[in-house]
Amino acid sequence: MRIILTGGGTGGHIYPALAIAGELKNRIPDVQLLYVGTAKGLESKIVPRSGIPFKTVDITGIDRSSMLKSGKTLLKFPGSFLQAREIIKSFEPDIIIGTGGYVSFPVVFSGTFMDVRTVIHEQNAIPGLANRNLAKRVDRVLLTFPEASQYLDGANVIVTGLPVRKEILAMYKEGSIARPAGKFTLLAFGGSLGSSSINQAIIPVIDRYRNTDMNFIWITGESGYEEMKMSLEKKTDVKALKCGLEMVPYKFDMETALAAAHLAVCRAGAGTVCELELLGLPAVFVPYPYAAENHQEKNARALVAKGAAEMIIDEFLDGDSMYKVVEGLRRDPAKLEEMGRNMQKEARPNALNDIVDQILAL
């Protein structure tokens, strides 16, 4: 069996595809996989590390800030479809799986005109533009949230949940939450691309905990790392910190950070939410304010209502607001433990199996 996977731009589109790839290899050891992404997208750094062959098409997301920029992007579309078609003709896949992001559109769309089965997976409660347009043409539409179905005009729409990486799934133990003993560890990250809001707020928080035994794991995102490092050094004497601090631009072994943490401060993208649910890791969500249809805030509010998380609106996030929430939870371990239990109740550990079952049914 030969399968093309495509999706990119952010980790939220890439990691589900890699999780699917891993399970396909488990079930069909001789399966031949090919990942199609872009040369400049995050997938170009992450996918090659997995050992999956990687090819690219030349396409970028539509920049709606000006008609000129949008026009330049649209001019690339015909070429990207031709590139995708040539890749498909050369590889001769049985199935094409798209997990979202602009790169998935020309690949999956081209496949619908060829003798190939096509599947898309939509991670969010509000579908992206690519999947909205693909839903009516593909053979299967797989969803994380049932709410997404109202936006998709597809005949074979199935709610499966979200696939997560095998490293995360391996750490899941039903009904068991074993947060690490020792120093209270706060994990702060803003998704695969980082978050300026979270980064700016965490600096004064670290400064306020500088003389404590608190421990921080701070993933800044690659673009903000140097700036944040300089800002932190201006705010406090980093060499004299008594609190623990691991500050990195990106973390490929994210599962180790999640396992070490007692609390996460992060965005509320679907991938992040599902990984936190599996691990029972309580969170302070700072939803990305520019997400389509504000779907991140909807994700966060659902978990806040179930006693699994706290939320700070991005507009009101600063060092003081973050410190108050973090300190309140740090001083109330019983509440933190209850939040972890409530978080894990929302987990869908069988999502990956259900997704691959649907793919192989084709």
List the helices and strands and how they pair.
Blueprint: E1 2-6, H1 11-27, E2 32-37, H2 43-50, E3 54-56, H3 67-91, E4 95-98, H4 104-111, E5 117-122, H5 129-134, E6 140-143, E7 157-159, H6 166-171, E8 185-189, H7 196-208, E9 215-219, H8 225-235, E10 244-248, H9 254-260, E11 263-266, H10 270-279, E12 283-285, H11 295-305, E13 309-311, H12 319-330, H13 333-345, H14 351-360
Parallel strand pairs: 1-2, 1-4, 2-3, 4-5, 5-6, 6-7, 8-9, 8-11, 9-10, 11-12, 12-13
Helix pairs in contact: 1-14, 3-4, 7-8, 7-12, 10-13
Q: What can you tell me about this protein's structure?
A:
The protein is α/β, with parallel strands linked by helices and 362 residues long. The protein folds into two domains: 2-163 and 349-360, Glycogen Phosphorylase B (Rossmann fold, 3-Layer(aba) Sandwich); 173-345, Rossmann fold, CATH 3.40.50.2000. 43% of the residues lie in helices and 15% in strands. It is built from 14 helices and 13 strands. It has helices at 11-27, 43-50, 67-91, 104-111, 129-134, 166-171, 196-208, 225-235, 254-260, 270-279, 295-305, 319-330, 333-345, 351-360, and strands spanning 2-6, 32-37, 54-56, 95-98, 117-122, 140-143, 157-159, 185-189, 215-219, 244-248, 263-266, 283-285, 309-311. The strands form two sheets. The chain has a seven-stranded parallel sheet, sandwiched between helices. A six-stranded parallel sheet has the order 10-9-8-11-12-13, sandwiched between helices. Helix 7 packs parallel to helix 8. The longest helix is centred in the N-terminal third of the chain and has 25 residues, at 67-91. It is globular, with a radius of gyration of 21 Å. Mean pLDDT is 89; it is low at 63-72.
